[in-house]
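Course assignment 3, question 2. Fill in each field.
Student: A.L.
Task: Predict the tertiary structure for the chain below.
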Amino acid sequence: MKNTFFSLLIFFFYGQAFSQNIAFQNLCNDFLKGYQALDIPATGLDYKENFASIKNAEELKKQEVFFTGIRTKLDTKNKQEFSKEEALRFKQLNYETSMNLERIELEKKWNEAGRKIPEGGLFKNKDWYKHYVKHFTSRNISPEEIHVFGKTEVKKIQKQIDSVRILLKFKNEKEFYAHLQNDTFFLKDKTSILNAYKKIDSTVRKNVTKLFSLFGIPEIAVMEWPDANVNTPPGMYLNKDQNPYGKDVFQYNFYGTKHSKRAMEWLYMHEGIPGHHFQSIFRNTFKGDSLQNRFFYFGSVEGWACYIEEYGKEMGLYQSTYSYLGKLQWDLVRSSRLVMETGIHYYGWSREEALKYWKENIKGQDEIAEREVTRITNWPAQSLCYKIGAMSIQKIIKKSKLNLKDAHQFVLQHCDFPLEVLL
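Answer field:
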């Protein structure tokens, strides 16, 4: 079955082969060679660690000379000579060059100002925050736009949750959320959890061809997240190249010896199939050109996994009102993070103001409020990539004018591109 899957992938990718522009390929190779030689620190999640790793003035000058040279070469290229795929790679090179030159200017100013690492977020460093927003979403979108979008999404999802409450015949929120804390909504032994995920996996595999042309997806092992604690997210995917287990793995959070039944279906779709596991196969199986898989774009990766959760019913899931409610409850968290994070880093909210917003807008999830506010404070812009990425992928699919299967194929084939390039 696995060979069938790979054969179909080969047919899809190489059935759409594009002309080789040797001069352009040489430029890509030169870019990568020079980029690697500069040893530029990767932008991690924790902004304080990123600031601490910024290079000195001499190293930044070398970077500036290199990227300015690349910019000159890109400006002299005749775009008419490119195939469609080469045109996308050309846009990606422009994107990376512009982002790096912007970063270098910010780092030069920071060095000149005395290398003081900001505390409590980036509110006093708004240009840095704007850069982080573009880096993590891979979109040219402003904090103001994100703040407004987040508020709109919060109101929409609150109405959807309230409709579910009414459908389930609960007269008020207090009674409703008290009911959701009932032990019947949690699994407390690992065998039951594994069996439940096995059933979800089987259901998704039976229905996956409704949205995709491919089948025969390699297996994914389900296991408890080792040493989970109060700050551990609901789950995580690790492909076999990222872990010591020698196989693709989906880890679930069993902190407190319980696992939410309401979260299982959306979580498996996000981390497993057709989310990160499905996406990882496309990203890691084929090496089309020198640039492929060199860069990682959170907006493309997390945006896809967030986007595909909307198709739970097509995958045979969300048959239970409570499973669908679980999806809505986490969507409310993601949407609220857009508001709280831009509030902290762009509008100067205090931690207390962010927690107040949480309590006023997210009911029944106070136990994770501190964790989430700490996350968005220490990891500026990372939490934006889910909702902004999903929204962007919706636009890309609409713009493509392809049928849904082919549009999904296009997005997965290009998951190693920044979203701004695909729009």
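Instructor remarks: The chain has two domains: 16-117, 143-422. Confidence is low (pLDDT under 50) at residues 1-19.
Grade: pending
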